[in-house]
Amino acid sequence: MAAELTARGAAARLVEGVTEARASLSDQMQRGALTALVPPDRARAQRLALATLRNLSRADGVLRPLMRKAPPSSVQSLLRVAVTEMLAEGAPAHGVVGDAVQETRASGADGLTGLVNAVLRRAAETPPERWAAFPAPELPGWLRGRLMSAYGKKAAQAMEAAHARGAAIDLTPKDGDAASLAARLGGAALPTGSVRLPSGAQVSELPGYEAGDWWVQDAAAALAAKMLAAEPGERVLDLCAAPGGKTMQLAAAGAAVTALDVSDARLERLRENLARCRLAAEVVAADALTWDGPRDFDAVLLDAPCSATGTIRRHPDLPYVRDGAGVRDLARLQADLIDRALGHLRPGGRLVYATCSLLPEEGERQVAAALERHPGLAVERPAPDLAGIAPHWVTPEGALRTRPDDWPELGGLDGFFIAALRRS
Q: DSSP per residue over 59-127, as a string?
């Protein structure tokens, strides 16, 4: 009889899937990695896997001197999870060690239970100051080098430290009243109008979820629709719209929104979000590169597919499952999408281009190339009254560039590039 899956065992499998098979957490979960667990254990497994991936180099720094050679990957992953539980999350050592030994036995590695027991007992003796002294995990070379070239070594190190700290939960209030929603939920109202909650909050159980009073959306991601500043009655096209946070912002502002995405599955989630929040939009399943839709929209919001390098604080598996090989293809796709988006605008219409990427080739250089291709296209600087915009976020060209190490006193935010363009 197969051993019953536990949250810790599932977390170890997720970590092994990322580090050995280069499979993202989301892909593993879509394939049913956690379906055998009840919801509380499922949430715990995800939390443990995320924490372990954020602290992987620190866990290895503790484990390496305690073993003459690395054990099989399944046991190595279990040791990494257990060390992270004890030293990063403060779980009682006796319970973690005992459970890890049972997990090892249940996995069929009976001959390694003694090793696991001995190693974790010694790891539990690690002083907190030694754990804290380990540097934040470094990004892979392909990404670290690009960030150092773009922003400098100190900035790259600050971003790595922000990634290790993880991310809180940000909400966008439907009525725009962040102070009121923060007071109701015990969160903090952010300068840009989002509400921030601790990362462990169970979203679907919070007041106002069923009523659709708010939706989950990173504070930086919410800036794209704010930059577009849709007016009531304006016709707005939201390209690559799923899962729908920006669509709901535009609809809540009173715009007539057409939300387009190539993925039917992702659009289903968008429809569910619209229904929960009692908002309306025309939903279209189509490829933005071939869609022959109207060409007289007042505005287009293009949140383009990208390397997602600005979201590592939320997705610590990303550095392990990407290698930078696809960035050039993504840049070509982004350029094609910009050209198609401009074709759907009326004369004088505006386009907001956004990516959750830290790479200039997906942001600043992409817009510079678009300006060369399209005479009469110009960058519009953020409105002076755009709430909460830090001056250093505004690039010399007039776009926005946020980084994970911004707002350190507030818990950081995702890395985004956002530019507002207008056709003459």
A: HHHHHGGG-SS---HHHHHHHHHHHHHHHTS---HHHHHHHHHHHHHHTT-GGGHHHHHHHHHHHTT--
